[in-house]
Amino acid sequence: MYRNILNKSVFMNQQLGIKEKILKQVSESADHSVFFIGDFADLGSVETIRKALKEAVNQNMLEHIAHGIYVKPMNSRFGIVPIPLETIAKEIALRDRVQIMPAGSTAANILGLSTQIPMVVSFLTTGSSRSINVGNRTIKFRHAAPRNFAFKGSTIPLIIQAFKDIGKENIGEKELSAVKAYISKAMDKNVMSEDILLAPQWIQSIIKPYININK
């Protein structure tokens, strides 16, 4: 009887210790930090970790934004600032050890070709295709061939994905002006001349003059 009580007491203390460690880590983290249940796998069982994270949610230390995904909220005088879905996507990629690249309207939005906030943010990935719902918005990953990730920089593949989504016939002065401005501020100008050679011919003919200007 005594041994059973002792074992139960030790178990309760272990659970309490795990919860305290998780809450301490959450408390000391930066706003918009992303947490997964697997981040705490070395501390104890999945059920114990889940209970600790639920406690953090109850204390308003975390938001449970999707299955197995938690975010430390960022508050402003206007209320809670939503975490960018791109940030969540990058954290998922790090967790899964895969590469991702903005695609479609998401790439166009980053380049400034579109001012609308897309309800679905899209990425190519070396991992598996799937969708993750975050509130009323969605992160969509689409598996792509390794050649899509053969670029040395990030600017040219971003332009390629955006232009493919917009279509050659819809690229005008407004779009070219936005791309020119983005290239002028880009940090990977030294590899653009190599990266552009991996683009479709029609995109090469449009973009090469802007690369030469910024050399």
The N- and C-terminal alpha carbons lie at a distance of 80 Å
The profile of the biggest β sheet is: 4 strands, mixed
Q: Could you give the order of strands across the largest sheet?
A: 6-7-9-8
Would you count the extended β strands for me? 9
Task: List SSEs in N-to-C order.
Answer: HEHEEEEHEHEEEHHHH
Helix content: 40-55%
Strand content: 15-25%
Question: Which class do the helix and strand fractions yield?
Answer: alpha+beta
Parts with pLDDT < 50 across at least 5 consecutive residues: 1-13
Gross geometry: elongated
Averaged pLDDT: 88
Account of the protein in words:
The strands form 3 sheets. A 4-stranded mixed β-sheet has the order 6-7-9-8. The protein is built from 8 helices and 9 strands. Helix content is 49%, strand content 17%. It folds into 2 domains: 75 residues, Winged helix-like DNA-binding domain superfamily/Winged helix DNA-binding domain (Arc Repressor Mutant, subunit A); 129 residues, no CATH class. With 215 residues, it is an alpha+beta fold. The radius of gyration is 23 Å and the shape is elongated.
In short:
This protein has about 220 residues and is of the alpha+beta class. The chain has 8 helices and 9 strands.
Highlighted features:
alpha+beta; 215 residues; single chain; 2 domains; Arc Repressor Mutant, subunit A
Topology:
Elements: H1 2-28, E1 34-36, H2 46-58, E2 63-66, E3 69-71, E4 74-76, E5 79-81, H3 85-96, E6 100-102, H4 104-111, E7 120-125, E8 130-134, E9 137-143, H5 155-166, H6 173-185, H7 189-195, H8 201-213
Parallel strand pairs: 7-9
Antiparallel strand pairs: 1-3, 2-3, 4-5, 6-7, 8-9
